[in-house]
Amino acid sequence: MRVTTLVIIILVIALAGTITFGVFYLTKEDPIEKVRAIVPPVVEENNPPEFRFAFYGDAEKNVLLEKPLDAAVAGGKIYVTDSRNHRILVFDYNGKLVNAFGEDYLKTPYGVAVSGSRVYVSDAAASRIVIFNRDGKFEGYFEPKKEGKQFHPRDKYAIAPVGDLQVKGGKIYVSLIKSDRVLVFDLKGNLQLEIGEAGVGAGEFRAPHGLAVDDEGNIYVADSGNNRIQVFGPDGRYLKTLGGEEGQMGKLTTVRGVALDQRGNIYAVMNLTNKVVVFGKDGKALFQFGSPGAEHGQLGLPNGIFIDSNGRIYVVEMGNHRVSVFGY
Q1: Taking residues 238-245, what's their average pLDDT?
Q2: Is 16 helix (H, G, I), strand (E, B) or coil?
Q3: Is the pLDDT of residue 53 over 70?
Q4: What is the three-state SS of 226-270?
Q5: Model-level pTM?
Q6: Sign (positive/negative) of CA torsion 323, 99, 142, 158?
Q7: To the nearest 5 percent, what fractions of the chain are helix, strand and coil?
Q8: Residue 227, helix vs strand vs coil
Q9: What is the tens place of the pLDDT at every residue in 272-310?
Q10: Is 253 exposed, middle or buried (0-12, 13-18, 19+ CB in 10 A)?
């Protein structure tokens, strides 16, 4: 009887291990990465992240980044908009090039976002959003509509020229650089919300670029021409501004990219001063990192930024033609 019970226990343990392995294999998720993502790093005042590594492409294959603008990370892959070469380059989690796609469909890719099985790319020169699957197969063009009708190219709602984009919670968020607005669509292309107009007041923009959306649906906009980050509620209502005063650590200039970490801290990329300013969830400036140059840890005209679930920070440098990775 005891032997039979022992055999049953051993079989149950073996079966549980097999099922666990099968789940991770089928979902293609790294169990270690998944565990780490549960506890994001603590970000403390005056404790900036350290430089980890940078990647440029593959010199042996002559596939190199030229004026990259944005990045997104999903499924252990890093997707980067290679704007001058009209394509998306895909890297593994260590920065090794694994794929390139989009040359036949993209002119000047700006923003990139991954949602589900799809990769969404905003094309600044073509004024449209192009959709691929994660392997790079073309799936179609996003078709924006208002009240069921497609936009005319000269319609004020047309995405021309399009800047950054984010896809979250079944919605697509798009910044319009020259028409000084942010538009929100559902995944079928129906216009849900319009935010902003040209100006310097609260809720107004001058050349909005980067976007971020938190878990509550609040929208963070890099208002580049006004040197600030503006925050809006899910309904588009203006909430607050981040940017600081002259001489303060949190003073922003030519802010291009914005991202949020798992704890709600806000990262703002300053393009011309080659720095990243980090604010706490309460809006208090915590620290800056980066300096002008091409050495490790320095930045060259940074534009986009992405923070993954493990707290890794990816800064996309259009001037140094690379992506620099930082961590705590």
Answers
A1: 90
A2: helix
A3: yes
A4: HCEEEEECCCCCEEEEECCCCCCCCCCCCEEEEEECCCCCEEEEE
A5: 0.86
A6: positive
A7: 10, 45, 45
A8: coil
A9: 999 999 999 999 999 999 999 999 999 999 999 999 999
A10: middle
Alpha-carbon gap, residue 294 to 213, rounded angstroms: 31
Residue 42: half-sphere exposure toward Cβ, Cα within 13 Å = 2
User: What's the pLDDT tens digit per position in 162-200?
Assistant: 899 999 999 999 999 999 999 999 999 999 999 999 999
Cα(98)–Cα(90) distance, integer angstroms:
6
In terms of C-beta density within 10 A (0-12 exposed, 13-18 middle, 19 or more buried), how is residue 20 classed?
exposed
Cβ contact 40:49 at 8 Å: no
pLDDT band at residue 161, thresholds of 50, 70 and 90?
confident
Provide the sign of the torsion angle of the four alpha carbons 326, 243, 159, 150, taken in this order: positive
Contacts of 168 (CB under 8 A, 6+ apart): 115, 213
What DSSP character marks residue 12? H
